[in-house]
Amino acid sequence: MLSRIGVSRIDDLLSDIPTPLRLNRPLDITATSELELLAQMGELAESNSTGLACFAGGGVYDHFIPAAVAAVVNRPEFVTAYTPYQPEVSQGTLQVIYEFQSHICRLTGMDVANASMYDGASAMAEAAVMACKVTRRNRVLVSETVNPLYRQVLKTYLSGRDTRVVTAPMKAGVTDEQSLSEMVDDQTACVIAAQPNFFGRLEDIEGAAKIVHTVGGKLVMVIDPIVQAILKTPAACGADIVVGEGQPLGTPVSFGGPLLGFFAARKQLIRSLPGRVVARTKDVEGRDGFVLTLQTREQHIRREKATSNICTNEALCATTAAVYMTLLGRTGLKQVALLSAEKAQETARRLCELDGFAPYFEGPFVREFAIRTPLPAREIILNLVTQDILPGIDAGRWYPGLEDCLIVATTEKRTPHDIDCLIEAMKKLAKSHAMSRM
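Predicted structure:
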């Protein structure tokens, strides 16, 4: 085989890999049976699992996933199916995506939803592009309290366009409404705000909607799909476009992916929606059928007329979300949100009873909150991870001056034991820090 492809030895196949990065010894593999190999691989896998108690959020959350979700989604007709560009094929997959769209519409109160986006960040960026097109304006105003990673993606998306991205400052952990009002003008295509925001705080979305609608702009709302189950719908708040990260809806945290963006809007904006839309129709014999419709993408129309260049969707993740939401239903989603909120309130209360800890911002939150720490949040994270506790997110990573701000999140999976371990570890760390300063 080597002779046939024109090389003299196997190492020649690795020539593109820098020499310092190559393993300079044979792999330590012992010939064994399949049964023994599987047992060995199982032991290795177990060594990677530390039972980490995760209190980190920031858009990706460690929720319980019922076994029935995997049982349905892992069926071969879902795992291997592909929704092609031809609108008449793969009826089963198209129907599931249609159900996903319907669930997102019910959750948000919006009229239409697309078949999904790559992730929450790209969904937000596509929403900004869409707002610029429908308003024919080139100024995007995004709140400083929106996830900083999302804002970085937004700037990347719009960097090649004649569009300005302006950041509206925050005050006490929420969007400064006075500054927002002063910054909005007749060239503002949209205002982007999150509910809850990156610090877990609840924003005055209705106030932001009123401000941007006064000048004819659109309100883009970034939501947490779990928390949304116990909040007023974005439609009722005055949002025009709603986006978010669908990972909490049945997809494991894993190593940061895969993710799932969802995108919903009011009916009058349907022809400007990016990506795919699945619709229900009837065939010539009057039977229900599902089709891809309004495919105003670069593959189908002239580039300058395209609504976006997204050429696919997160079909399997969207299927997972549809199954998860169907299994839990309205009551189940609400229960997950309430349990997460109750545990967040308890955790925040107990943390604030410790010396050196206090709420970073005063005001309502749901399942995520910012806590002021007696030592840098980064040090707390590095210390507690060694104890199998991921205590939260270091806000100072993106917000200069907030190095003592730890953003903590809870889900229904966090047990009383998990919370006790977090509190005890924080208590010992704070005590040790105080003694070192004496």
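Summary: The longest helix spans residues 315-352.
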